[in-house]
Amino acid sequence: MPTQRGYRQACGVARGLDIVGERWSLLVVRELLLGPKRFTDLQQALPTASPNALSDRLRELADAGVLRRRQLPPPGNVRVYELTAWGRGLEPIVVALGTWALAAPPTAEQLFVSADSAMLTIRTFFAPTPEEREATLRIELRDHGPAGVFGVRLTSPGAAVTHEPPDEPDAVLVTTTDALLAAFGSDDLTGLAAAGAVVTGDPEVVRRLVAGTRIPGPERSGQLSPGE
Hints:
Layout: H1 12-20, H2 25-32, H3 39-45, H4 51-64, E1 67-71, E2 79-83, H5 85-88, H6 91-101, H7 115-125, E3 135-141, E4 149-154, E5 159-162, E6 171-175, H8 177-183, H9 190-194, E7 198-201, H10 203-212
């Protein structure tokens, strides 16, 4: 970043803010934690960021070494943005910030939740039972279109989430982002069913996913996810 915009303090916190403290910077990082994205994908995930502001943040983060631009080979043949190894080191910071913010008073405003933000909630808060059996899911968040398709693997250490769904998942869940967030912590699928969710395959796998994803904090009504 330009020197005149920095804090000019010999402090790691100040230097970190020099690199990722501009508006939208950490949210760009959040959106790349689960894998690379095109510029249009980032625009969809950050709808209130102007194209110029988003372009500026991507350029600054690339110049700082947090992310890089890469051209996918054919048949993709598109340019994507992805985190560098150093940039991926920001994940615990992003998750910790989002978890800390769960204690803030909820807002009555209707908040937009990106698909990746909702799925990071699973990766952050899914707590397996001691006897957790490995299972795979395909999750389709229909309010996000193609960008809302994910693969989830439930294991005894936790939940792995990617943008690459398994070819033969144990269960498929098609729902909306709001319905999924509202279902977290439930011991049954009643809420999802009432919201029009469609489950195919083994419904017990879906129940384990939502029951095991419990968002901490005194307030749940705001439905904040750790990536928001």
